[in-house]
Amino acid sequence: MSKRSLSRIGERGFILVMLAFFLLPFLWLASTAYKPSRDIFSIPPKLTFMPTFEQFATVFRLFDVWNLLSSSLLIAGGSVILSLLLGVPAGYALARSTSRYAVAVAYFFMAIRMVPAVAALIPFYLMMRDIGLLGSWIAVVLINAMLNSAFVTWMMFSYFRSLPKELEEAALTDGCTLFGSFRRVALPAVRSGVVASTLFCLMFSWNDFLYPMFLTRLDSKPISVALLSAYGTKDITWGTLGALAHFSTIPIVLIVLLLNRYFVQGLTKGIH
User: Fold this and answer.
1) Using CA atoms, how far apart are residues 33 and 26, in angstroms rounded to an integer?
2) Which of 70, 212, 236, 88 is nearest to 150 (CA)?
3) Residue 147 · residue 115 · CB < 8 Å
4) Pfam families, per this entry (predicted)?
């Protein structure tokens, strides 16, 4: 065999080993959702078993799954929409600014997203309590939008800055207003950036645990918080956790797989 063939086999073998290393824990958790309770911790572990839906039946008996999913959708959807409404125009304004501090301001917005979650939680908790929004999913939407819109501003600044100004100047010459050139020329040209920003914000909001845990009531908690219910004082009900994990991960994984190519563009674009 040639050196190239051996190198290719080695690369593929390494990729398979790494995939197994990272995916086996998730596959084990997913398989527990279909195992009878007596087989989850059987020694030696049973690789073959008769699938059952008793864990899912337990989940639907103990949890209002559809209410959990609707809360997750409301929080994620509201956060994404508000983040885009604030972040996209802000990114455009920074990209078209003539100030020499525009790049520094863009990095400042990125730094906002890096603020530790607990540091933002305490003052925001007190603020929501004082205005009467504590306990509602609106409070989670607002804090997620505050952080995610800063991230969208940073990303969209990069996309708009790479767009030639001549396109918008031509639109202005043809009679477009400033807003018209933004809506009809600049925004369609950076559609991939908007989709990438949407996906990142959706992941941040859907998987968020800390803010919904402290800012919502029992009837407005998303499914990410419900996963904590599998942890008891004496043990962890792995079957329940595995079944709940299906509802928590499958929707977001399907969306990411569907629009996967935009992640690569969003991660490699960078600020220039």
Assistant:
1) 11
2) 88
3) yes
4) BPD_transp_1
Asked if residue 95 lies in contact with residue 109, where contact means CB atoms within 8 angstroms, the answer is no
- Rounded Cα distance, 16 and 18, in Å: 5
Tens of pLDDT along 237-254?
778 888 888 888 888 888
Q: Considering Cα of 233, then 237, then 242, then 244, what sign does the dihedral take?
A: negative
Q: What is the DSSP letter of 190?
A: T
Strands, DSSP E only, in the chain?
Answer: none
- Cα-based angle 111, 154, 136 (whole degrees, multiple of 5): 75
The partner residues of 216 in beta bridges, in order of sequence, read: 135
Query: 231 φ, ψ to 5°?
Result: -95, 105
> 112 — alpha (psi -120 to 50), left (phi > 0) or beta?
alpha
Q: How far is CA 63 from the centre of its chain?
A: 23
> Tell me: the pLDDT tens digits for 135-178?
888 999 999 998 899 999 998 998 888 888 888 888 888 888 88
Contacts (Cβ under 8 Å, ≥6 apart) of 77: none
Question: What stretch of H or E contains 158?
Answer: helix 137-161
The residues, ordered by sequence, that sit 6+ positions from 29 with a Cβ below 8 Å of its Cβ are 238, 241, 242, 245
Phi, psi at 236, each rounded to 5°: -115, 125
